[in-house]
Design goal:
With 456 residues, the chain is of the alpha+beta class. It has helices at 4-27, 34-58, 63-75, 102-105, 114-126, 132-141, 157-169, 243-248, 252-274, 306-314, 333-337, and strands at 152-154, 178-182, 186-192, 225-231, 233-242, 291-293, 325-328, 340-343, 346-349, 351-352, 363-365, 368-372, 385-388, 393-398, 403-411, 416-429, 449-452. The protein is flat, with a radius of gyration of 27 Å. The chain starts with a helix and ends with a strand.
């Protein structure tokens, strides 16, 4: 018989599948189809049945057992959350109901910070002291998969959240994407084929709108669908720390969170921009949906001129201009700094640094945020500057990511402790190709992602 926890896990998976259908329809700016509505109702019915089964099992607990649990709980001191940047204000206690396990609810597992957790593991590995809090972590969450049958410790939730926060703080890309929570390794999303609005064949996926006279018959049109598959891939970091480092480096915990978070963020952001799609995300600037804006006739090598920026702006999808941002390699900054639009005998700057006239905490180009990053190509190479609307980028993430653990036995003979961080992720643009506008030049294409071509 399944436990209530296992039943509720299945319930969460069913709800996630229902939400994925709704999210797909919303992203396509359309209503849910009748067939999709039936699927959503089916998943919700299944979730309700699973919840009913879980409650039925819980109701079989005898009154005596419940009373004993409540009495034990009342005698247990209420743990306090130690405040830091990610926790409630000083003195605020955990919100625990009678009968609930306070230790299980504490995201820090009673550790003051990540450094104290690391020191406790170091003491355990040397046999100096077996911390009761570590025993409860292993008992409650089980052995981790890092070292098989050997002892390891899953890192408390609060410190995992701190790691994830560092990941998304490096460059504001991940949090702008369309996040798809995944409880399974693979998920298929339905999208329409909307690539050419100059004819009715692929305009809005084949939906044709007609003007109808009174009592006239409406001509039928059929949607043309395509499937988008997201399949999780693991990106991981593994570090070692000696017992002396764990014991005598006071800020080691913060250093580990910082370096793992930043390193994983840098790699994920690189793939979101430039990934090949083989065993990793498909990058928006490396996909068939990206427009590559040609250089100017006679343009000197390794330069960026105002005409480049203006023409990039002209082929950005109209709905993306108010949502996206510019990204550029720092090598092109000298060209940006002097770039201006001629007006009479003077000019208006195209690039405005943070503060100053822009009155914003970030640089701007044509009024949109502009971020300097070494994820963009070298000066003169294709993609040294580009525009991206990441709200049209699908980012699938496992519901339990990031997954972090540490082992005291992996390199026991070297007196080292292993720290591992893993992130299960996949991503690709919502668009599968560029879009031909309804009117304009035959060869003109627009997209949420545009990069400047090579100037060699």
């Amino acid at each position: 018989m399944l436990t209530p926890e296992e039943l509720r896990k299945q319930k969460a998976e069913a709800i996630g599948k229902a939400q994925a259908i709704k999210d797909a329809a919303k992203a396509q700016e359309r209503d849910v189809t009748a067939e999709e509505m039936e699927s959503v109702k089916g998943f919700l019915d299944e979730a309700e049945k699973l919840e009913a089964q879980a409650k039925e099992i819980e109701d079989k607990v005898t009154l005596d057992a419940r009373l004993q649990a409540a009495q034990t709980d009342l005698k247990t001191p209420r743990p306090r959350i130690i405040p830091d940047a990610a926790t409630p204000p000083p003195g605020e206690a955990l919100d625990v109901q009678v009968g609930e396990d306070r230790f299980a609810l504490d995201p820090k597992k009673n550790f003051r910070d990540y450094g104290e957790f690391c020191h406790a593991v170091a003491d355990w590995s040397k046999g100096v002291r077996q911390d009761e809090r570590l025993s409860k972590i292993r008992a409650a969450q089980g052995q981790n998969t890092l070292v098989g049958a050997e002892g390891g410790f899953l890192i408390p939730t609060e410190f995992i959240n701190a790691l994830f926060k560092r990941m998304i703080d490096v460059l504001p890309i991940m949090q702008q994407c369309m996040i798809i929570g995944m409880n399974t390794n693979s998920v298929d999303l339905t999208a329409v084929q909307d690539k050419d609005r100059s004819s009715t064949t692929y305009r809005h996926g084949g939906v044709v709108v007609y003007w109808v006279q009174e009592a006239g018959q409406i001509t039928r049109s059929a949607l043309k669908f395509r499937m988008i598959n997201l399949k999780l891939n693991d990106v991981a970091a593994l570090s070692y720390a000696t017992e002396q480092q764990l014991r005598y480096t006071t800020n080691l915990g913060q250093m580990l969170l910082k370096t793992h978070g930043e390193a994983m963020s840098e790699e994920i952001n690189e793939q979101i921009f430039w990934g090949t799609g083989s065993g990793k995300p498909l990058g928006c600037f490396n996909s068939p949906a990206c427009v590559e804006q040609a250089k100017e006739s006679g343009q000197a090598a390794d330069t960026v001129v105002r005409e480049n920026v203006s023409k990039i702006w002209s082929v950005i999808y109209s709905k993306s201009k108010g949502k996206g941002a510019w990204y550029y390699n720092g090598e092109i900054y000298p060209d940006l700094e002097v770039m201006e639009m001629p007006v009479g005998t003077g000019g208006v700057p195209i690039f405005i640094p943070a503060g100053g006239f822009s009155a914003t905490p970030f640089n701007t180009i044509k009024g949109r945020p502009a971020y300097e990053t070494d994820h963009m190509a070298a000066l003169g190479d294709a993609g040294d500057i580009g525009f991206a609307d990441m709200s049209d980028y699908l980012l699938g993430m496992a519901s339990n990511s990031p997954d972090t653990a540490m082992s005291v036995h992996l390199r026991f003979d070297y007196a080292e402790t292993a720290f591992r961080s893993m992130f299960a992720i996949d991503g690709k643009p919502w668009w599968d190709t560029t879009l031909r506008p309804r009117k304009g030049a035959t060869a003109r294409r627009v997209s949420p992602w545009v990069k400047l071509a090579e100037r060699a």
